[in-house]
């Protein structure tokens, strides 16, 4: 197959003319024939003034280009969309599949022999992996890297676990407006991704375990010189991948996904990663078995002591040896022969740094928590599954029965949650519905239902909360998420009424509505779907609502899956 500039010619009906025209136009940029005859390495440019998590992308692209050129290739950066968590309405998840489509089609449309995927904020690496899996040309991921920690009055702060913790204290009246304002300037002190084991860090660690980055690429801080150096090395590796024609499909195998999901359990990572990696695997026709994932969780303890499950931050994880050191601890339960962009996982493990006395990455004999981070629940409320992040939950609430207090959607929750008139007690179960993939739409991170203000003021820190929404990977609490099918398509969550009893049995992996089947059948017969979303007649929202799959299938678009 033709490579370099000859790849994927624009269709004018005359291939030689197409190449002539392409060369003529690109020469306008000052390239020589020598440069244009090199292997072309595309580099995604996801810089945006709206995206501080990608604030270092220009520096990383410059270093990646240097690495490509030192290895004999021609680097060509190109833009794709950029998604930041706080600047995406209605929610970044709504845009993930758009970014995956953009990435896939721009890789396919433009002539490149390999691509370097530079990104970091929560939805970016999943979208880029989805796109690269479908485009299937040689690809390597370069995460932007985590921020450094912040400080406030002697306390170490990290986005965004501490954002939520301190905001909860503000809601409870413990921090005044001036204090919370000052804190807002300290939570995210540098460019880069959130520095707790939230979604971005989880996805970066899993991407490294999947074999799609160079070793330690997940954890080097965004602002360190090593981050620039690994960008240069990534550029050079991309040239080698192009020469050897090693494609994502050869790396992202079922064994590689099993390795990545094992790491997810061992880091006590974000629930969101289950949705994202299910979507990436789905692009390759690989189905993720949630039961197998749950079994992994019982077998693999949480070994990494990072917030929100533990105490430390990503920079500490990095200096303790990062993913290679963690893989060393997991050697007996992962497939170390799995191929990576730079060899095998065994090579990465062999080169892992061993740091005497470090306590951030524990041994399996001395874990942070036994029984893994994430549990997959079923039951009559979640026939197609739900997730509970056990490592961020309150142990006494893991077996709990309580009265349901139902919110019909985000607006209803915003209207009533903090009202003094809301009848709610600490033992109740807060239920949020119509916040799933089609319901909200985009399955926002609303599953961290705040503790109602009157209970927060009385000192209540956690309650059982259940929803068809997602939750930020930086959040904590006894929170059941991703209930499938969602309420908006008639899932059992749609049938719950305030006053019903709900039982969470984390040990038995069940979430059940304690209402008899005959009554549920009556309610189902009377159920009406929620009103159509404004603007759903056209455009991307129309496409999204028609095509988005449920959480247990990764929320990808159905038409993006390979034919069965
Ligand atoms: Fe971008 Fe947290 S907001 S990683």
Which tags fit this structure?
564 residues, alpha/beta, 8-stranded mixed beta sheet, 4-stranded parallel beta sheet, 16 strands, 36% helix, binds FE2/S2 (inorganic) cluster
Q: Give the distance, in angstroms, between the N- and C-terminal Cα atoms.
A: 27 Å
The helix tally amounts to 20
User: Which structural category do the helix and sheet elements fall into?
Assistant: alpha/beta
- How many β-strand stretches? 16
The geometry reads as globular
Q: What gyration radius follows from the Cα positions, in whole Å? A: 24 Å
Helix content: 25-40%
The averaged pLDDT comes out at: 95
* Spatial strand arrangement across the major sheet: 9-10-14-13-12-11-15-16
Q: What kind of sheet is the major sheet? A: 8 strands, mixed
Strand content: 5-15%
Could you describe the 3D structure shown?
This protein has helices at residues 15-26, 33-36, 57-70, 92-109, 124-135, 161-171, 177-184, 199-210, 225-244, 248-251, 254-266, 272-283, 290-299, 314-319, 322-329, 345-350, 410-416, 453-457, 517-526, 539-547; strands at 40-45, 74-79, 114-119, 139-143, 150-152, 155-157, 339-340, 343-344, 374-377, 386-389, 399-407, 429-432, 464-467, 479-481, 501-505, 510-513. By secondary structure, it is of the alpha/beta class. Strands 9-10-14-13-12-11-15-16 form an eight-stranded mixed beta sheet. Strands 2-1-3-4 form a four-stranded parallel beta sheet, sandwiched between helices. Strands 5-6 form a two-stranded antiparallel ribbon. It starts with 14 loop residues before the first helix and ends in a 17-residue tail after the last helix. FE2/S2 (inorganic) cluster (FES) binds next to loops. The site of FE2/S2 (inorganic) cluster (FES) has 9 residues, from loops.
């Amino acid at each position: 197959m033709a490579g370099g500039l000859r790849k994927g010619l624009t269709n004018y009906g005359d291939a030689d003319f197409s190449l002539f025209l392409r060369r003529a136009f690109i020469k306008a940029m000052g390239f020589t024939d020598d440069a244009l005859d090199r292997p072309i390495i595309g580099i995604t440019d996801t810089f945006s003034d709206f995206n501080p998590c990608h604030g270092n992308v220009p520096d990383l692209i410059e270093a990646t280009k240097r690495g490509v050129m030192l290895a004999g290739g021609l680097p060509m950066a190109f833009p794709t969309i950029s998604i930041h968590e706080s600047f995406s309405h209605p929610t970044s998840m709504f845009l993930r599949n758009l970014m995956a489509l953009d990435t896939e089609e721009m890789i396919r449309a433009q002539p490149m022999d390999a691509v370097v995927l530079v990104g970091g904020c929560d939805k970016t690496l999943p979208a880029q992996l989805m796109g690269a899996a479908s485009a299937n040309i040689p690809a390597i991921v370069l995460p932007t890297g985590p921020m450094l920690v912040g400080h406030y009055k002697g306390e170490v702060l990290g986005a965004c676990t501490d954002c939520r913790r301190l905001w909860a204290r503000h809601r409870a009246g413990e921090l005044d407006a001036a204090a919370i304002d000052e804190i807002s300037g300290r939570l995210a002190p540098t460019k880069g991704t959130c520095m707790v084991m939230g979604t971005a860090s989880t996805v970066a660690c899993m991407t490294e375990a999947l074999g799609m980055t160079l070793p330690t690429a997940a954890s080097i801080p965004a602002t360190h010189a090593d981050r620039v150096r690994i960008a240069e090395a990534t550029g050079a590796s991309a040239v080698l991948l192009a020469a050897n024609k090693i494609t994502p499909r050869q790396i992202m195998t079922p064994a590689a996904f099993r390795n990545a999901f094992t790491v997810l359990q061992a880091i006590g990572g974000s629930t969101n990663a289950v949705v994202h990696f299910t979507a990436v695997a789905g692009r390759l026709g690989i189905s993720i078995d949630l039961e197998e994932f749950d079994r992994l969780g019982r077998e693999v303890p949480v070994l990494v002591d990072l917030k929100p499950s533990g105490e430390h931050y990503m920079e500490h994880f990095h200096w303790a040896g990062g993913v290679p050191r963690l893989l060393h601890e997991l050697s007996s339960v992962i497939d170390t022969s799995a191929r990576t962009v730079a060899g095998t996982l065994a090579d990465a493990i062999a080169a892992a740094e061993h740091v005497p006395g470090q306590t951030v990455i524990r041994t399996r004999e001395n874990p942070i928590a036994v029984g893994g981070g994430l549990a997959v629940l079923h039951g009559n409320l979640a026939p197609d599954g739900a997730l509970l992040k056990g490592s961020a939950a309150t142990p006494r609430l893991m077996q709990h029965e309580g009265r349901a207090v139902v919110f019909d959607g985000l607006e209803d929750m915003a209207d009533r949650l903090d009202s003094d008139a809301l009848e709610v007690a600490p033992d109740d179960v807060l239920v949020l519905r119509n916040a799933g993939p089609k319901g909200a739409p985009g399955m926002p991170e609303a599953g961290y239902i705040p503790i109602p203000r009157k209970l927060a003021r009385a000192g209540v820190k956690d309650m059982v909360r259940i929803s068809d929404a997602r939750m930020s990977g930086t959040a904590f609490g006894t929170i059941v998420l991703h209930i499938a099918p969602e309420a908006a398509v008639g899932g059992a969550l749609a049938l719950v009424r305030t006053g019903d009893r709900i039982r969470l049995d984390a040990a038995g992996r069940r979430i059940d509505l304690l209402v008899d089947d005959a009554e549920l059948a009556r309610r189902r017969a009377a159920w009406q779907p929620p009103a159509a979303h404004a603007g759903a007649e056209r455009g991307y929202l129309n496409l999204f609502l028609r095509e988005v799959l449920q959480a247990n299938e990764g929320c990808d678009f159905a038409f993006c899956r390979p034919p069965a």
